[in-house]
Amino acid sequence: MTGILYGIGAGPGDPELLTVKAFRILSESKVIAFPKKRSGEKSYARQIIDAYIDPKEKDMLGLVFPMTKDPVILEREWNKAADAVAEKLESGENVAFVTEGDPMLYSTFIHMKNVLLKKMPDVKTEVVPGISSVNGTAARLNIPLADGDEHVAIIPATDDRDALKRAIEHHDCVIFLKVAKVAALISSVIRELGLEQYAHAVTKVTSEDEVIWTLDEFERAEPNYLTLMVVKKK
Amino acid sequence: MTGILYGIGAGPGDPELLTVKAFRILSESKVIAFPKKRSGEKSYARQIIDAYIDPKEKDMLGLVFPMTKDPVILEREWNKAADAVAEKLESGENVAFVTEGDPMLYSTFIHMKNVLLKKMPDVKTEVVPGISSVNGTAARLNIPLADGDEHVAIIPATDDRDALKRAIEHHDCVIFLKVAKVAALISSVIRELGLEQYAHAVTKVTSEDEVIWTLDEFERAEPNYLTLMVVKKK
Questions:
Q1: What is the ipTM of this complex?
Q2: I want to staple B232 with a disulfide (CB 3.0 to 4.6 A). Which of A57, A167, B173, B210 is the partner?
Q3: Residues lower than pLDDT 70 in chain A
């Protein structure tokens, strides 16, 4: 019988933010798949769940999802990853695919599942939601994302100045993802709107490597790929 | 010594979607506070955590947060709730205040904390994020909220037709909260935009009482207070 593919949210970084359900399914699954940027590189998702599993007792399946927008490379690598998962599922094993945060919010699981479903249209999949970095950040900053009639938006940062400005103007709270590449631009938009004291940047929230910056600090920092920014107008 | 106030996310409904951290803090806390709409009524948050605690071993503190917009009633009841929590904290007990979903996203914890901080400005608070109904819904529908450059918005439903329309037009995915009161209006906007097959309504997601509706079904149903609608354009 074909195995089940689980998409498991590992949460934002703190291993204790794994759900009881994710823990159970990881315990019950023989094959644990996890994404990494390069072959040989550490996986953030795997790091989060490391405390809960003994890799000697599991079939640890590291899958490479390269950080590129080149469609040829992406198709080739997503196909390779899906093939590796398909092989396990066809042999009857369940596969628990772990991603940081939530599997349905900007995760590698979405790509992998889409490619896999073309190869195995009838495969059974189940998603176990995870705490996203968005909710993790609100908890650590002790700032409500929204209350009452307030609007929240989650938006990947862009180099379009007007789009950044409109996003802040149209919502009570905006979470900009992947701000590292446009750090100077996004800071200048926030200053132009006079919202300096309402902006915070955070990276690897709730993990041991967590960093939280005010806007002043952010402008002098070197943010990494997992850095997001929250602008909560009050 | 004054106790610590914990804001604990119980997740959307399935008790297994509690985090390991929430479980630990509930186990360690003597006082478990939870919101309910009326005195004597069942609390959804409490229902979710019921499997994990023995109420005989705990000090179960039900707090009434009435469903009204009357500012006089709200101030009186929030004050009462904060006083009850303050009394426990001042006696040295930690208080674990449980809310459904995530404590920083449209939760009663936000109100209670704000009122409490006016009485006890130095009280230590810690928030344990929870799986919100938004992420729970995406998992159950098996629909990605967003990927790549897509934008997500979380917006309380309103009776302003143009505002509903603009929200859908400006984002790749919109989650409308509390749609029961404007069910007919929101359906007609979605039909006008030709997005019938991309809209789903969900109530008490992941719980035993979960209901998932297509737009056709939703139009014939009687949605309740906890019903949200996802519109994911593709």
A1: 0.95
A2: B173
A3: none
